[in-house]
Specification:
This protein is mainly alpha-helical and about 525 residues long. It has 17 helices and four strands. Helix content is about 65%, strand content about 0%.
Length: about 525
Amino acid sequence: MKYLSEESRLLLTIIRPERRKYVKAACLSAFHAGLFMLLPNVFTDLTALLEHRLHAAPLTQLQQAENLAVYQDYASKAAKWTVYFGVVGTVTYKRRYEFIELTNRVGHRLRAAMFGQLVRKNAYAGKEVEAGYVHHLVTDVKAISEFLGETLFFGLRGSLFLLGGSGCLLYQAPLLSLVAIALMGAINLAFRPLNSSLRALKEQENNALKEISEYSYERTNNLKLIKLANRYSHEQREFGQELDRYYGTAQRLARLSGLNFGVLEALGLAGMFFVGLAGAYINTCGLSSFSLMSSSTYALYVAMGFRSLMQFRMEWMKIVGIYSIIDTRLALTALIQSPDYNACLFEPQAADKSQAGPELKARQYPIKDDSLKGLVYALVGDSGSGKSTLLDLVAGLTKPHAGRITLGGYDLASVTDGFFQENVSYVTQEKFLFSQTFRYNLCYGNEGFDLSEQNLERCARMACCWGFIQAKGGLDSLVGVKGKTLSGGEVQRLILCRALVKDPFLLVLDEATANVDE
């Protein structure tokens, strides 16, 4: 790996947790390629069968024996190649399954790591995730996992065909192999400038697609403003311009990619023809004697392998660029290689008991100093003066740069997140509900506390939301996507109710009644 760029090595570190499966898949690929190296022997056997002649009746005893020998030869060769084709089919199935399985596992690891980083990063505490990250999570991870699964072994298969075909050709016809190697070298040099242009265009296409995601995300989350500003037509034109920019880049890439494949196809076919021509000339001149059919097949393998590697190289450059951007923003590589992180993946997960009933847990952080219990403080100040920042500090969402904060007898810098889950409820300015049931939303974050029907009803009545919960079908009814079926006041009352369920030591309210009428 020392010959690879830093970005390429970074990408390949993703596969380390799956190295055993990669070794298994590589062995299957090698065995599969080896089986194909035996395929030219079919032509030798067929040629031998063509030399047989069956005697017509009436037959002498000797002629009957000769005919029987011919039938036996046909039967033995048919049986041999039937077994061969069966083995090839079985290995192909197993090889293909392993590739897709690796694609799924790598994607699983990447999505889990990315989601974990997005949730944990303090920079996103209490904020919506940018559209660019959603684009990474959905689109880019799929491209990376497919490359590290199917495409990587597509390139390996090309390498094996190139090496195997060259080796067999070198053994059978040394002079012909030199012609093939010279042609491949010339084609490779000719394609270097084109590959660089393709990589640059692919990066431009990816950036343009990311910009479209961010633009549409921003606009669709500000529909009320767009309506009030009467900007429908303007936004449609702006988005159309974004699409035009992306389409222009994609169109240039399509032309260059088509040119690449077209030239590669033409040069590959021309190369195969000239290799065959050279083989015929070498045989004609008596410089060497070999089966032109077998040698042509090996030359075809060399051409197939070379073409596969050229395609693989283009994909490699694109994916390396994409992953480098993601890792720079989210530092995924270190997390994916962590033993603690990998130990929890691909194992049966325990059932979520957050809504199972009043299963109470022992407090890990019992309050030592309750002198503040029952007191109410109001924090007043101008917009931008830092009120929400101060509340984030108290709720443990942000750590102070200097000094320390104590609560209930504990230094907040030395406690785990479990302290805040046990003792703090925080109703932020951002009002959000999950696209689940009322019960799920009220129980979320209150695991280990009294989640009985009676306690949920008591808290719902305190927050004045029990009435509309019952009107909409009860606790087990769905609230709709992000609570879109509810009014702003109803959403806010549900969030207040959720904060009351665990009877917290500290209840933090940041403009908690902004949308409540009374």
